Every structure is written in C-alpha cells, then in structure tokens.
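Memo to structure team: turn this sequence into structure tokens by end of day. - J.P.
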Amino acid sequence: MISEHFDTRTRINMKLALDRVCRNRPDGEDHGFRRSVAENIIRSALAGRTGIGQLVDAGERAMIRTPAEKEPA
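Reply from structure team:
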C-alpha cells in the first residue's frame, strides 16, 4: 500500500501531480490513462524524486508513452 512507503507530504504531492497532469485532458478521467500516469509518479517517488515538479514531470513522461486515442477516419 502506498501509505506504507511514503510520508504525508509525498502522498499529497503525488495526488496533486496526478491531478495536474490529467486535468484539461480529454482522456484525463480514463482509468487506464490515469493508471499509467500514476505508475510513473509512484516510480519517481520510490526513486526519491518527491518534489511536486519532479512528480509532475514523471507523470508527463507517461503521457508521451501512452498511445493517443485514434481519431475517427
């Protein structure tokens, strides 16, 4: 469980980073998309990069790797 690995400040930063990355995105509420972003944020925090900027950057890197939704032809 996440609460066992991180202090309160880090957990708050992780939540804020997830919300910042996903807001205003058409797929920002999609479970799979959010999960991919969250996994990158968690990996960053586990590596000791727990600042809000570092976590947002990690989440944004997940967006680059997440395939974009295909446009209707």
